[in-house]
Request: fold
Amino acid sequence: RGDYNKSVNDYDNSIYYVDKQVGRLLDYLESEGFLNDSIVVVTSDHGEILERRHKNLRHGFGVYDEEVNSPLIIYIPGQEHKIIDERVRHLDVIPTLLDITGFNQSDYFQGKPMVSGRNIFLMAQNQNFKLGLIKDDVKYVLDGFNYVPEAYNLTEDPFELNNLVNSPKSQALYHEEYGKILYSWYRCQVNYYDKEKWKKGERILCP
Reply:
């Protein structure tokens, strides 16, 4: 109170409300004897910008880590608590749950059971149009309107303040190693959904 700006205070209130509802659900599962037979997943669709490092507050403006780094908690009965630091994809959550429970995967899923080291693709299409690729420890970002690229070493520069694309030579190098992968993924997505290829029984095989 008094120390937070309105956006941060609203966000804290939202987190408090959601936390209470998750608690009610877990209490119910436990009281009814379901908790030991249930896998519980808590996640969100995006993160939130609470500091103006990249001009905007809130979300939907880009693919910086504040917006795309979201919570993911999975409770599995009988499994001991552990923290996994590797980056994973939301796309892989349902395939992972199916793998854990022994159900077959759909041929139409883009996701797969989670493993470390997989390329992560990002997109924000709001006031801005940003595409992103996380490969190893580097995030490559492309502005979909003016094609201006950015690249950040997420280990050395977690707040994404030092753009490594700072010369024509570096622009060419990052495009070769990261940009071509990102372009290929984006063109594949647009082609598949624009042409409604699933109606013809075709699987999506984007990188």
User: Anything to note?
Assistant: Strands lie at 40-43, 72-75, 120-125, 129-135, 138-143, 149-153. The chain has a mean pLDDT of 90.
